[in-house]
Design goal:
By secondary structure, the protein is of the alpha+beta class. The protein has a single domain, classed as Roll (Ubiquitin-like (UB roll)). The protein has 3 helices and 5 strands, in the order ββαβααββ. A 5-stranded mixed sheet has the order 2-1-5-3-4. β1 and β2 form a beta hairpin. It is globular and about 35 Å long. The chain starts with a strand and ends in a 5-residue tail after the last strand.
């Protein structure tokens, strides 16, 4: 299991725990914890409604793919540490990270 912190749209932070051996995406975990993630495209990096900002731990995630960057760069709010939650796999690299929700909510 890996533990990381999620900051919601209101600024409330909560530590959550996720299995790191099932190949799940950050988007899937956020939806499982009932965060308001639209994920309109179902995790295909086509809509950017699962936009998050990595406040801590971004160095371990590596760089975003070209498809992910294409979506992020079209957002009204885009940060150097922005990522699409559907493109971030749950693994030990997320241990201790702080993730801020940025995408549209329901």
């Amino acid at each position: 299991m890996v533990k990381f912190t999620v900051e919601d749209h209101e600024g409330t932070r909560k530590e959550i725990e996720a299995p790191d051996d099932m190949g799940l995406s950050l988007m899937e975990i956020l939806k499982a914890y009932e965060y308001p993630i639209l994920a309109t495209c179902g995790g295909m990096a086509l809509c950017a409604t699962c936009h998050v900002e990595v406040l801590e731990g971004e160095d371990e995630l590596g760089t975003a793919s070209d498809a992910e960057l294409d979506q992020l760069e079209n957002l009204p709010e885009y940060f150097p540490t922005s990522r699409l939650a559907c493109q971030v796999r749950i693994s030990s690299i997320l241990e201790g990270a702080i993730i801020k929700l940025r995408g549209e909510d329901n």
